[in-house]
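Tutorial sheet, problem 5. The two components below are modelled jointly, 399 residues in total.
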Amino acid sequence: MKLIELVILIVVVLAVALLITVGFEHIIPSTSVRRLAEFYLYTAYNPLVNYTAMSPEAVTAIVWDFRGLDTLFETSVFYLALIGSLALVRGLFVEHVEKSGHGLSIIVRTVTRITAPMIIAVGASIGLHGHLTPGGGFQGGSVIAVLPMIVIVVFSAGFLVLKGVTTSKLITTRSLGLIGIGVTAIALFLAGLALGTSAYVFQNMAKPAAQISMPVSIGGALISGTLWFFNLFEMFAVAAGFTIAFLAIMMARTLEAEKR
Amino acid sequence: MSSVEMLNTYFLSIVLASLLVNTTIALYALFFKPHYVKKVIALTIFSDTVNTFAIFIGYRRWVGQTPPRVPVLTDLNQNAIENTIEEFKSLAVDPLPQALVLTAIVIGLAVILFLVFLGWILYSHYKTLDMREIRGLKG
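Model answer (structure tokens):
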């Protein structure tokens, strides 16, 4: 066993040394970036070129347009990890509402009540402005998922269930978000079938071989085609997913404490 | 190489060196710490370090004598557009590592969640999280 650990460590050291050797030119940042990065920066918000995403935020353009399939499979990995976690605790996790207990002191509870809508507003702002400023569906959803965490700590997990945030509702929200992502991904493809022109799956703006595109803006507000919809649905999916996980952890713990 | 440039390189080298040291410590804890929770903590430190490393590689030095400012795309009229985008292209950092790190963070969070649930199940089965004892129990 010690020998295996030693061999693993030696291999890791050699691999890191090789990595440093190969990437030495790029490791200390210089004043220039790679050609690929220049391509992304040049085309992300440029109506004059072919492969544009029409989003001023280059990171979101990469995440949901240039490398959209990456993010789609990332979403499914996240979904599967969550399903796996819930399957692990399926027998130990019972949704129940406890009547006893008052939570933390009244100051903490009042502050939580005041900050709750603010947290949701900040999360929604981060998520829905993802195509304009740094942010996006994942970040916005994670910020919103902070709220149930705080509520569970300050009040209790049963309080959350009492307010109507049940596991089945959360799973429904999550599934609706995932369905929304899927529909948005094939929306232009279906439109192409209906109109009799060619279109790609996961297409956002017009490409040389597929001349239809999503609307760049609605009523003068820039939505960057599919990016806004992806961010919206991803926000719901991520927020609901994390809330399920927190709820399962905390419920399972209280149940364990009751058994003792 | 001017002294300011030298200092900048030195600061960047400090960041790089501490990232490598951090990676080493996290890997050591991941392999040799016996407790499950400590292994999970080491794994989060390791993944965060690797993410920071990716961001670091995509970083771009500021050119010019002015303090750094964020390149913002605002104009969309046909005359100004080429200049604005060219300026943006010449100043912005590499967005690709940031996009990949965004992906990695979410996946890492999901994996950590899974590991937390797994550790909890391990504890309720074996009544311990010491990996030496769990390994010795053999089922």
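Marking note: The two ends of chain A are 38 Å apart (CA to CA). Full credit if you identified this.
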